[in-house]
Amino acid sequence: MTEILKGISGSMFAGKTETLIREANRAEIAGKNVLVFKPSTDDRWGIKDKIKSHSGAEHDAFVIKNATDVADFLSSDTDIVAFDEIQFFGPEIVNVVQALLEADIRVIFAGLSLDFKGEPFGSMPELLALCDEIDKPTAICTEIINGEICGANATKTQRIVNGQPANYHDPLILIGAEQDYQARCPKHHIVPDKPSTGIKL
What residues have CB less than 8 Å from 64, skipping those under 6 apart? Predict the structure, then answer.
Protein backbone atom coordinates (compact mmCIF):
# COMPACT_ATOMS: atom_id res chain seq x y z
CA MET A 1 0.00 0.00 0.00
CA THR A 2 1.95 3.01 -1.27
CA GLU A 3 -0.70 5.58 -2.12
CA ILE A 4 -1.93 8.39 0.11
CA LEU A 5 -5.37 8.57 1.74
CA LYS A 6 -6.61 12.12 2.26
CA GLY A 7 -9.75 13.06 4.17
CA ILE A 8 -11.67 16.34 4.14
CA SER A 9 -13.90 16.55 7.18
CA GLY A 10 -16.07 19.18 8.84
CA SER A 11 -19.59 20.47 9.36
CA MET A 12 -22.03 21.42 6.64
CA PHE A 13 -21.17 24.69 4.84
CA ALA A 14 -17.46 24.30 5.69
CA GLY A 15 -16.43 23.96 2.04
CA LYS A 16 -15.68 20.22 2.01
CA THR A 17 -17.04 19.55 -1.49
CA GLU A 18 -15.35 22.67 -2.84
CA THR A 19 -12.03 21.45 -1.44
CA LEU A 20 -12.60 18.01 -2.99
CA ILE A 21 -13.38 19.58 -6.38
CA ARG A 22 -10.24 21.71 -6.16
CA GLU A 23 -8.14 18.61 -5.40
CA ALA A 24 -9.67 16.75 -8.36
CA ASN A 25 -9.14 19.68 -10.72
CA ARG A 26 -5.50 20.11 -9.67
CA ALA A 27 -4.83 16.41 -10.21
CA GLU A 28 -6.41 16.55 -13.68
CA ILE A 29 -4.28 19.56 -14.61
CA ALA A 30 -1.30 17.42 -13.60
CA GLY A 31 -2.42 14.78 -16.08
CA LYS A 32 -3.92 12.33 -13.60
CA ASN A 33 -6.99 10.21 -14.36
CA VAL A 34 -9.51 11.02 -11.63
CA LEU A 35 -12.81 9.28 -10.95
CA VAL A 36 -15.28 11.06 -8.66
CA PHE A 37 -18.15 9.24 -6.95
CA LYS A 38 -21.12 10.21 -4.83
CA PRO A 39 -23.77 8.08 -3.07
CA SER A 40 -27.20 7.74 -4.60
CA THR A 41 -28.68 9.20 -1.39
CA ASP A 42 -27.10 12.57 -2.21
CA ASP A 43 -29.81 14.18 -4.32
CA ARG A 44 -28.99 17.80 -3.52
CA TRP A 45 -29.19 20.36 -6.32
CA GLY A 46 -31.23 17.95 -8.48
CA ILE A 47 -28.06 17.01 -10.39
CA LYS A 48 -27.35 13.32 -10.93
CA ASP A 49 -24.03 13.27 -12.74
CA LYS A 50 -22.13 15.97 -10.84
CA ILE A 51 -21.05 17.02 -7.38
CA LYS A 52 -21.64 20.66 -6.57
CA SER A 53 -20.47 22.93 -3.77
CA HIS A 54 -22.52 25.61 -2.04
CA SER A 55 -20.38 28.19 -3.87
CA GLY A 56 -21.44 26.73 -7.22
CA ALA A 57 -18.30 24.78 -8.19
CA GLU A 58 -19.07 21.52 -10.02
CA HIS A 59 -17.31 18.38 -11.16
CA ASP A 60 -18.52 15.36 -13.11
CA ALA A 61 -19.28 12.38 -10.88
CA PHE A 62 -20.62 8.86 -10.99
CA VAL A 63 -23.59 8.01 -8.76
CA ILE A 64 -23.31 4.66 -6.99
CA LYS A 65 -25.56 2.90 -4.51
CA ASN A 66 -22.93 0.69 -2.87
CA ALA A 67 -19.25 1.43 -2.37
CA THR A 68 -18.29 -1.83 -4.08
CA ASP A 69 -19.83 -0.50 -7.31
CA VAL A 70 -16.63 1.52 -7.76
CA ALA A 71 -15.03 -1.59 -9.25
CA ASP A 72 -17.26 -1.26 -12.34
CA PHE A 73 -15.62 2.04 -13.27
CA LEU A 74 -11.95 1.36 -12.61
CA SER A 75 -9.42 0.93 -15.39
CA SER A 76 -5.70 0.28 -15.58
CA ASP A 77 -5.02 4.02 -15.88
CA THR A 78 -7.08 5.16 -12.87
CA ASP A 79 -4.79 7.28 -10.68
CA ILE A 80 -7.17 8.82 -8.12
CA VAL A 81 -10.60 7.99 -6.76
CA ALA A 82 -12.51 10.73 -4.94
CA PHE A 83 -15.65 10.28 -2.84
CA ASP A 84 -18.05 13.04 -1.83
CA GLU A 85 -20.47 12.62 1.12
CA ILE A 86 -18.63 9.42 2.02
CA GLN A 87 -20.45 9.13 5.36
CA PHE A 88 -23.56 7.90 3.52
CA PHE A 89 -21.88 4.73 2.29
CA GLY A 90 -22.22 1.56 4.37
CA PRO A 91 -19.42 0.00 6.45
CA GLU A 92 -18.00 -1.72 3.35
CA ILE A 93 -16.55 1.65 2.29
CA VAL A 94 -13.58 1.09 4.63
CA ASN A 95 -12.54 -2.12 2.85
CA VAL A 96 -13.14 -0.52 -0.56
CA VAL A 97 -10.87 2.40 0.30
CA GLN A 98 -8.16 0.04 1.55
CA ALA A 99 -8.46 -2.08 -1.60
CA LEU A 100 -8.02 1.01 -3.77
CA LEU A 101 -4.89 2.00 -1.87
CA GLU A 102 -3.52 -1.54 -2.21
CA ALA A 103 -4.07 -1.20 -5.97
CA ASP A 104 -1.86 1.92 -5.93
CA ILE A 105 -4.82 4.26 -6.45
CA ARG A 106 -4.82 7.43 -4.39
CA VAL A 107 -8.07 8.12 -2.50
CA ILE A 108 -9.49 11.48 -1.45
CA PHE A 109 -12.80 11.79 0.36
CA ALA A 110 -15.04 14.46 1.84
CA GLY A 111 -17.65 13.87 4.49
CA LEU A 112 -19.37 14.93 7.68
CA SER A 113 -17.41 13.72 10.67
CA LEU A 114 -20.39 14.28 12.98
CA ASP A 115 -24.14 13.87 12.47
CA PHE A 116 -26.72 16.45 13.58
CA LYS A 117 -26.56 14.99 17.10
CA GLY A 118 -22.85 15.79 17.32
CA GLU A 119 -21.96 12.08 17.23
CA PRO A 120 -19.55 10.23 14.89
CA PHE A 121 -21.17 9.69 11.49
CA GLY A 122 -21.07 6.21 9.94
CA SER A 123 -17.59 4.95 9.03
CA MET A 124 -16.00 8.40 9.28
CA PRO A 125 -14.07 7.69 12.53
CA GLU A 126 -12.36 4.64 11.01
CA LEU A 127 -11.70 6.36 7.70
CA LEU A 128 -10.17 9.40 9.37
CA ALA A 129 -8.01 7.15 11.56
CA LEU A 130 -6.58 5.57 8.40
CA CYS A 131 -5.80 8.91 6.72
CA ASP A 132 -2.30 10.07 5.91
CA GLU A 133 -3.58 13.64 5.48
CA ILE A 134 -6.67 15.39 6.90
CA ASP A 135 -8.12 18.80 6.09
CA LYS A 136 -10.65 20.07 8.64
CA PRO A 137 -12.23 23.25 7.27
CA THR A 138 -14.70 25.08 9.49
CA ALA A 139 -17.82 27.08 8.70
CA ILE A 140 -19.17 30.21 10.41
CA CYS A 141 -21.66 29.85 13.25
CA THR A 142 -24.86 31.51 12.08
CA GLU A 143 -26.74 31.52 15.39
CA ILE A 144 -28.26 34.94 16.07
CA ILE A 145 -27.30 36.34 19.50
CA ASN A 146 -28.73 39.72 20.52
CA GLY A 147 -29.47 40.47 16.89
CA GLU A 148 -25.99 39.61 15.63
CA ILE A 149 -24.50 36.51 14.03
CA CYS A 150 -22.24 34.60 16.42
CA GLY A 151 -19.46 34.32 13.83
CA ALA A 152 -17.33 31.77 15.72
CA ASN A 153 -15.77 28.77 13.97
CA ALA A 154 -18.53 26.22 13.38
CA THR A 155 -17.67 22.54 13.69
CA LYS A 156 -21.21 21.21 14.25
CA THR A 157 -24.25 20.80 12.01
CA GLN A 158 -27.56 22.02 13.46
CA ARG A 159 -30.71 20.45 12.07
CA ILE A 160 -33.84 22.59 12.32
CA VAL A 161 -37.21 20.84 11.94
CA ASN A 162 -40.34 22.98 11.69
CA GLY A 163 -38.42 25.91 13.17
CA GLN A 164 -37.02 24.01 16.17
CA PRO A 165 -33.76 22.14 16.85
CA ALA A 166 -34.10 18.46 15.91
CA ASN A 167 -34.57 16.07 18.81
CA TYR A 168 -31.84 13.59 19.67
CA HIS A 169 -34.23 10.71 18.97
CA ASP A 170 -35.12 11.90 15.46
CA PRO A 171 -33.84 9.60 12.67
CA LEU A 172 -30.75 10.59 10.72
CA ILE A 173 -32.87 10.92 7.59
CA LEU A 174 -36.31 12.55 7.86
CA ILE A 175 -38.78 12.06 5.03
CA GLY A 176 -41.39 14.74 4.36
CA ALA A 177 -40.45 17.05 7.22
CA GLU A 178 -39.74 20.75 6.77
CA GLN A 179 -36.09 20.86 7.74
CA ASP A 180 -33.06 23.06 7.38
CA TYR A 181 -29.42 22.86 8.36
CA GLN A 182 -27.16 25.49 9.87
CA ALA A 183 -23.51 25.60 10.85
CA ARG A 184 -22.99 26.07 14.59
CA CYS A 185 -20.13 26.40 17.04
CA PRO A 186 -20.10 23.93 19.97
CA LYS A 187 -21.59 26.56 22.31
CA HIS A 188 -24.69 27.09 20.16
CA HIS A 189 -25.23 23.53 18.93
CA ILE A 190 -28.51 22.37 20.52
CA VAL A 191 -29.79 18.78 20.63
CA PRO A 192 -32.87 18.43 22.89
CA ASP A 193 -33.00 15.21 24.94
CA LYS A 194 -29.39 14.29 24.21
CA PRO A 195 -28.31 11.93 27.00
CA SER A 196 -25.75 13.19 29.47
CA THR A 197 -22.50 11.31 29.92
CA GLY A 198 -23.45 10.90 33.56
CA ILE A 199 -19.94 11.80 34.59
CA LYS A 200 -19.51 14.67 37.04
CA LEU A 201 -16.13 16.40 37.01
Answer: 37, 38, 39, 40, 70
Q: Which structural domains are found in the chain, ordered by start?
A: 5-137 (3.40.50.300), 140-188 (3.30.60.20)
Least confident of 6-10, 39-43, 194-198: 39-43
- Is 18 one of the catalytic residues? no
Gyration radius of the chain over CA positions? 18
Give tens-digit pLDDT for 40-76: 987 665 677 889 888 888 999 999 999 999 999 999 9
Whether the full predicted model's pTM is greater than 0.85, yes or no, is yes
d(CA 121, CA 105) in angstroms, rounded, equals 25
Mean pLDDT of 160-183: 83
Q: Which of 3, 18, 58, 85 is catalytic?
A: 85
Please work out, in degrees rounded to the nearest 5, the angle formed at the alpha carbon of residue 59 by the alpha carbons of 88 and 95: 35
CA 39/CA 51 separation, integer angstroms: 10
